[in-house]
Amino acid sequence: MAGSGLQLRWTKAGAPPRLIPEAAMPIGAFLSGRPAAEAAELLPRIFNVCAVTQRVAARLALDLPALPGDAKALQAEILREHVLVFALRWPGHLGLPQRPDLLQQSGEALRHALFGAATLPQSLTAFLDLLRRGEAPGLAVLNGIERAFAPGEATCDALPFAGAGDPFNGAPSENSAVGRHGAHPLLGDIEAIYGRGPFWRATARALELEALAQGWQPRARQWADGTAEVAAARGTYFCRASCDDQGRVTGFARATPTDHGTAPRGTMHQALACLNDPSQARVDLLFAILDPCAPVTHNPEPAHA
User: Fold this and answer.
1) What range does the domain containing 262 cover?
2) Helix ranges restricted to H, 166-279
3) 198, 154 in Cβ contact below 8 A?
């Protein structure tokens, strides 16, 4: 959702790789002059990650009515994205069995299959105990992530959560699922010991997956200035739009979790800078957890000034 892709360029030995976002598509110019309803349908076709989130946000920003079933579709899309990382993507990087069968489950059966009979605990001590003795696949993934990164590794500063200021100003922010669950005591405990790193982020997605499986509904709302704010699996998606008297688009802007993460001093740059032993395998695992919504290309050539 951020542009055509991201490049990781490897620098001299011992230095972290550099993350270089490719130029974003000028979506405002592309949609300008189109009828609002057409623009709202085009957006998720152009950027096909989190398509429901993008359609809902575009319709909100363009003052179009919500479509029947949008709320349920948004809930299902975010849940599926979370299940994908726990069942397929993260296990593949951790050497754990992949579980495509979990994509066919839902509700309490899904929660139980991923995390076992007990709900995820509130305290870090109880959580670590559950991870160490748990055999459920989701617990094995979280245990693998906790062990893969040392406390303080691949972390970032306490950036403001997305939406606390102008989401379109280009400033870095913490735009992740943590923003919706930051008050959970387990995340506070993890942040205090491990920092805002991979274990913290992965646990937030586990907590949200559990909540979604139990019926929690993610938020979609419009600010007083017309900005649309809609939940996505990777964080929060923002749209701002304007139309003329004929209902044709005159301006359109969007800000995504990847836009905020790749901003200068954003979460992705900071995490790379304090990654111990930045071998390609460890970088791949880190980016699987950061989960940018654009492909990452590894460039083995040294970067030039």
Assistant:
1) 6-33+68-221+258-299
2) 178-181, 185-194, 198-213, 257-261, 267-273
3) yes
